[in-house]
Amino acid sequence: MKKILFSVLSVSAIVLLASCSSPKGLSSAATKYLIADSALKNAHTGIAVFDPESGKFLYEYQDDKYFVPASNTKIMSCYAAMKTLGDQLQGITYVDMDTAMILIPTGDPTFLHKDFKDQPVADFIRKTDKKMYIDASAWNDQALGFGWSWDDYSEYYMAERSALPVYGNVVTWYQVKSKKENPSNAADTIDTFIYSDPELDGPVDFGKPENSFRVERKRDSNAFTIYEGKEKNAETDVPYVTDGVNTGIKLLNDSLHKEIFPIEVGKKIRYTSKPSVIFSRPLDSMLKPMMHRSDNFFAEQALLMSGYSITGVMNSGIAVQAVTKNLLTEMPDKAKWVDGSGLSRYNLFTPRDFVWVLNKMKKEISWERITTVFPTGGRGTLRSYSADSGRLYAKTGTLSGVIALSGYVITKKNKTLIFSILINNHQQSTAVLRSRMAAFLREIIEKY
Hints:
By secondary structure, this protein is α+β, with helices and mostly antiparallel strands.
């Protein structure tokens, strides 16, 4: 009996040592800043630090456990896009028939987006004299993702997914206040102008004025309620209901002064010739803001476009299966990957999954490209890591109770290491936890 008990205890000790293997200095830094710190006492934490030069882990702590990764999921979507979409985004494909032009949308999220002045697809449509139709038969998904928080439908970060995104699938509302030139009375000296871009057909109501300007949309319709704020100038993005491609087509008709018709849902058209392509812009001009500002909409459409390029179908679930089968079969742990952005809490990845894909990315993609697409310390969502500018290239992730950071760190000995820190079920401010992660990374930079 004593011999059996000793054997069991030995196995447990070996497992514990394996899960926490590391150089002594890195282990103590992880314990100090991330594991034993009072801010993380009741949280779940997973850490992996990997040296791609030696092919060995420098530190592992619960890196084989599953965590909700929040926007670290965008690392997967970014890699998928880099590997499947080529150097240029397909803005739209089309078939030029005798009497009509059939436009086949590709899911390009930059179409008429306010961040991109150059719009080759819009220019092409404006110049076309033939009657135009939209064939969106490849679309086979829901506007909102699996496991998204339903009550965030009116928030800027939860724009609907679609085959034909227009204006980023949001309406931008503006409030501008100015002094009246000839006020009728002393109490009425300010003119307030509120308008939207684009303009949507639908009811608009006004709520009671508040301190800050905001606009809400009804859940299932493009009906908006405006709350005037005290700001002189303010703006806010509100997602609109896409209704398949119908809202997008209405916006195109108004914006481009062209009449475009949807092809009946479910109707399949056999084309005798291969569709031609209009490219919209370099892929990385979309991936960079996706990673720098953690743009959920770009990430969702990037995943859909990746799946479409492989299967010919726009569906996030099918896209995940196709990308996993084609690119991620050797990932160490079988992830539960359900969307492109990380909005869903159903996503589950391990820290070593992220280390693996980041290492794969480093092997297959140029370092110059990676360090352009990923923000460095002091930029984008890494603003609070300003001390590590030029030494940290990573993706953040934040949901209530979730904080994550995965990427590359360049040490003072000029070694490039790959790391992933995933923290779930915490009740601290993100600022506190970011400071802890920054201190841990500083130890890596200084000592390795």
